[in-house]
Design a protein that fits this description.
- By secondary structure, this protein is mainly α.
- It has one domain.
- The chain contains 11 helices and no strands.
- Helix 1 runs antiparallel to helix 8, helix 5 packs across helix 7 and helix 5 packs antiparallel against helix 9.
- The mean pLDDT is about 85.
Length: about 280
């Protein structure tokens, strides 16, 4: 079940990233983040109410805040790196954020089967390859540092979600959305702009926000019933979904290494699943 939930979270994250990236072609990134996070907050508040989670032990708050701030800073660094360098250099580095929960998982005693370890390695290679690395590209030191910082922050957000979900998966995501909304409001006040969102954007923002929140929730639940080292890798396969949607919807051309990355990632998933069944 943990494998299935992690894979569902990766598909939903990848879909949300695709839709968000498409919308940011017309609207400011901060506005898209803010609008989608608000939609996610409303959705998670409803879930918490229906499931009666508001009275859960508040120990999740610290981890929720850590995940929120880390994810927000990671996005800022990621966009800043993209503004300085090319996607083919920045994205593969940012995708390596999965190494953070991987290290944490092994440190706290996760012991996947040998076949699953092979699958994890293949999935990691596939994630980077699917991001479209440009081996011939050039990037300055600041671009590389920003991309590395983004990776560290994204990985830290994964750990925050996993740790908070030990207390309450639902309320961890609610806490994340509340914290992120505070950050977005502060940023909007500083920028003196709401980003020009239109009523026609509401549906897209809602889908993005709900998908993102649901992905976080499924990931958090999965970390509670499975190894963090496995769940974090499977959850990090979202670039595969994003590039496939870009190819299907926008007819964007994929470079050969991305096709290889998708195939290698799927092989890694198969090995992880097979290893767990043995």
């Amino acid at each position: 079940m943990a494998v299935i939930l992690a894979l569902v979270s990766s598909v939903m994250w990848g879909s949300a990233d695709f839709l968000g990236g498409t919308l940011t072609r017309r609207r400011a990134a901060l506005a898209v983040v803010g609008g989608s996070q608000l939609a996610g907050l409303i959705a998670m508040a409803l879930v918490a109410t229906v499931l009666g989670k508001w009275g859960d032990d508040p120990a999740y708050w610290g981890w929720a805040a850590l995940a929120s701030v880390s994810g927000f800073l990671g996005l800022i660094a990621f966009y800043a790196a993209l503004a300085r360098g090319t996607m083919g250099i920045v994205s593969p580095i940012a995708a390596l954020g999965v190494l953070v929960p991987l290290v944490v998982g092994f440190a706290r005693g996760d012991t996947p089967a040998a076949l699953q370890v092979v699958g994890i390695v293949l999935a990691l290679i596939g994630i980077v390859a699917a991001s479209g690395p440009e081996l011939s590209g050039r990037a300055g030191a600041k671009t590389l540092l920003l991309a590395a910082f983004a990776a560290a922050m994204f990985g830290t957000a994964f750990v925050g979600i996993a740790q908070g979900s030990r207390t309450s998966a639902v309320m961890t995501i609610v806490g994340m959305r509340v914290t992120t909304m505070v950050l977005v409001v502060v940023a909007a006040i500083a920028a003196r702009s709401l980003g020009g969102l239109q009523r026609s954007d509401v549906l897209n923002l809602t889908v993005i926000g709900v998908f993102d929140a649901a992905a976080n929730l499924f990931f958090g639940i999965a970390t509670g019933i499975g190894f963090l080292v496995i769940v974090s890798v499977l959850g990090s396969l979202y670039p595969v979904t994003t590039v496939l949607l870009a190819r299907w919807v926008h007819k964007e051309r994929l470079v050969r290494v991305q096709y290889v990355g998708v195939a290698v990632s799927l092989t890694g998933v198969a090995l992880i699943s097979a290893g767990g069944a043995l």
